[in-house]
Task: inverse folding
């Protein structure tokens, strides 16, 4: 009986360990959040539909840091964005982050959001990567994608964004000009959750959540 009891205990512990490993589960699909315009534009996107690695797909995960629910945290090192939920949980999204020399870090707030925003290349981007038109109309070919969250420090626009992308194949990499890119479906999901004025914490390269 003692051996049988020990065996059952070990099985139970093994189950708990497996349960701990399985805490990360896929969050509900954001497809229900798509507007008719979203569906129309995404259906005609000319970029390739990338196969996002499982680790960079949207998951609900345990969250042990101290940020309040409603906060966004970007782990630049790991290429993850977390939207903090109540009860020690967060939604984790895979992102593209800035190249090391261009990566922005710090604390900001969501000053505004926009749906299928126009893109106005900065002078620095024009000089480094241009020439581009002064303004690129919103749509699936636009680098800002389906939504953009504009990051402010006080009343000042930092010029950094969390936004969609027309290059989903780069999710999980560090190649952008400093902004945080998400798949269009994920950024729509995030914008539907986040509130204006929400705190955004972007960790610098070399510091992981």
Result:
């Amino acid at each position: 009986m003692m051996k049988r009891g020990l065996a059952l205990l070990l099985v139970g512990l093994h189950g708990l360990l497996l349960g701990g490993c399985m805490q990360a589960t896929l969050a509900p699909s954001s497809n229900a959040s798509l507007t008719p315009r979203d569906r129309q534009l995404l259906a005609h996107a000319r970029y390739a539909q990338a196969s996002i690695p499982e680790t960079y797909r949207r998951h609900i995960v345990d969250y042990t840091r101290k940020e309040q629910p409603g906060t966004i945290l970007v782990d630049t090192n790991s290429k993850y964005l977390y939207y903090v939920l109540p009860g020690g949980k967060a939604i984790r999204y895979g992102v593209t982050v800035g190249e090391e020399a261009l990566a922005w870090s710090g604390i900001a707030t969501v000053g505004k959001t926009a749906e299928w925003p126009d893109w106005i290349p900065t002078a620095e981007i024009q000089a480094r990567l241009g020439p581009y038109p002064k303004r690129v109309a919103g749509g699936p070919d636009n680098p800002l994608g389906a939504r953009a969250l504009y990051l402010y420090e006080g009343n000042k626009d930092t010029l950094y964004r969390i936004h969609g992308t027309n290059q989903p194949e780069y999710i999980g990499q560090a190649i952008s000009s400093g902004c945080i890119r998400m798949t269009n479906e994920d950024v729509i999901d995030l914008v539907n959750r986040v509130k204006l004025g929400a705190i955004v914490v972007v960790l610098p390269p070399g510091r992981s959540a």
About this structure: The mean pLDDT is 83.
